[in-house]
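Blackboard transcription, Thursday session:
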Amino acid sequence: DSGVTQTPKHLITATGQRVTLRCSPRSGDLSVYWYQQSLDQGLQFLIQYYNGEERAKGNILERFSAQQFPDLHSELNLSSLELGDSALYFCASSVVPGEGFSYNEQFFGPGTRLTVL
Amino acid sequence: KNEVEQSPQNLTAQEGEFITINCSYSVGISALHWLQQHPGGGIVSLFMLSSGKKKHGRLIATINIQEKHSSLHITASHPRDSAVYICAVATLIQGAQKLVFGQGTRLTINP
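(Written on the board underneath:)
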């Protein structure tokens, strides 16, 4: 158990709908990362937050948004869902983001499996 | 060409065999993760390394920074080692450390 929690574990919804995925980082971790794992694309970085502020963006669609709250939990909002959004969504956390060429280890949550029908 | 390439993509072996999974990358890195993903989907970090070699039980990970190559070895493989193994490199992109992932190696160990 990494100490990172994600809810829900599974989510089934229809095209056009909106869903919210939730992540609680390890105790003491200030940085949260979201990743998408689809069958054809593998694991891809979506977005990173540090202490409530967006820190870095990856391949995140405009229909997706995220935020990190004062208690450090994070939510990933996916709207106007399409069949291709079906994937595993992982959250990871680290103490702080790496600075410059320094990397701080990330710990992964169990993931949320999203199925869009 | 992907920035992180793993080989082989699929590997089937008999219980007890010595397993090697390779990872080559083309970017400058700060660190490299080896991750394990079981059929249930959860990801577990096996190793994080930036130089040399690390050992944990039957698992050994090595990295050669000059050659931009890492290997994951499993000694005395067991059916419970069956999983997808993913190499991920931490690299500086647009001022932030980001993980870039290989496509994974699906390992099946038969009893």
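Lecturer's comment: The two ends of chain A are 31 Å apart (CA to CA).
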